[in-house]
Amino acid sequence: MIENNTDRLIAALIQRGEKLLAQPYKPIEFTKNPEADEFLNDLRRYPHAYVLACVMDRQIKAERAWIIPHKFSREIRSFSFDRLLELKQEEISEIFGRRKLHRFNERMAEYFYLAIQRIHENYHDNASNIWDNNPRSATVVRRFLEFKGVGVKIATMAANILARDFKISMKDHICIDISPDVHVKRVFRRLGLISEDSSNDELIICAREMNPEYPGIFDLSCWEIGREYCHPNNPDCNHCSLNKYCPKGLRTINRE
To answer: How far is CA 227 from the centre of its chain?
Structure first.
């Protein structure tokens, strides 16, 4: 039985997450570049593009990170895994540096190269072996964590996108945590779900407490709200779907 505003809030967040999980697959807008997005959505031919984009997604805007595999493919006029495997680390570094693909080009070129080598050595040149055959969610997250440069935030995000958006079958979702993203943390703080000075660990444990069978179910909804409405300054509370549950939003309603 729902007894208070926090319970209603949690129920609304879970309902939104379950709706996203249940809807059929539709192409994902990773970059808002139709050609690049079509490329990233092609898990059958280019599963390594998805993995490499995940590895690149750090300390720059998401769209810039996710378009790197597409830009790289145009540079080498191919993105077959065999062609990538031919490249030396120095060649990849030259492309990253010349095209300024990332904020940290030298380091990310190394991670790009090492990710190719790991797919070759551990997954028989086929990145989809990371998530094929109905694995446990813990297995998928662990496999992403084994890529150099990938931490908990990216590993859980990668598993979450596979389960929620690509509809990849997994035995469970229990180890797909919420990603400690700045937008997600801001939303959780303003909703009063975590403390103002909360750590990433507090956010993760809070999500586990609210929905232990799938903690990451809150991830996309809160990320979208944080990016589109719950801005660091001048939040657009009136257009936020959580307005009636949010302490700040409730104050806005009461003034009107």
So the answer is: 14
Q: Determine if the pTM surpasses 0.70.
A: yes
Residue 90 falls within a domain, yes or no?
yes
Q: Is residue 153 included in any domain, yes or no?
A: no
Shared domain for 15 and 60, answered yes or no, is no
Give the C-alpha separation, 110 to 151, whole Å. Answer: 16
Residues 189-241 pLDDT 10s: 999 999 999 999 999 999 999 999 999 999 988 998 998 999 999 999 989 98
How many structural domains does the chain have? 2
Contact 227, 184 (CB under 8 A): no
Q: What is the CATH number of the domain that holds 39?
A: 1.10.340
Domain range for residue 60? Answer: 34-130
Residue 100's CB: how many other CB atoms inside 10 A? 8
Can you tell me whether residue 255 is helix, strand or coil? helix
Residue corresponding to tokens 């975590």: 194
State whether 9 and 41 are in the same domain: no
Return the amino acid letter for 13: L
Per-residue pLDDT at 249: 61
DSSP secondary structure letter of residue 210: H
Residue 245 pLDDT class (50, 70, 90 cuts):
confident
Instruction: Summarize the confidence of residues 24-52 as an average pLDDT.
Output: 96
Per-residue pLDDT band at 94 (split at 50, 70, 90): very high
**179 and 234 together in one domain:** yes
Question: Which of 130, 163, 185 is at the close of a domain?
Answer: 130
Distances (CA, A) of 139 to 14, 115, 136, 171, 178: 24, 17, 5, 10, 16
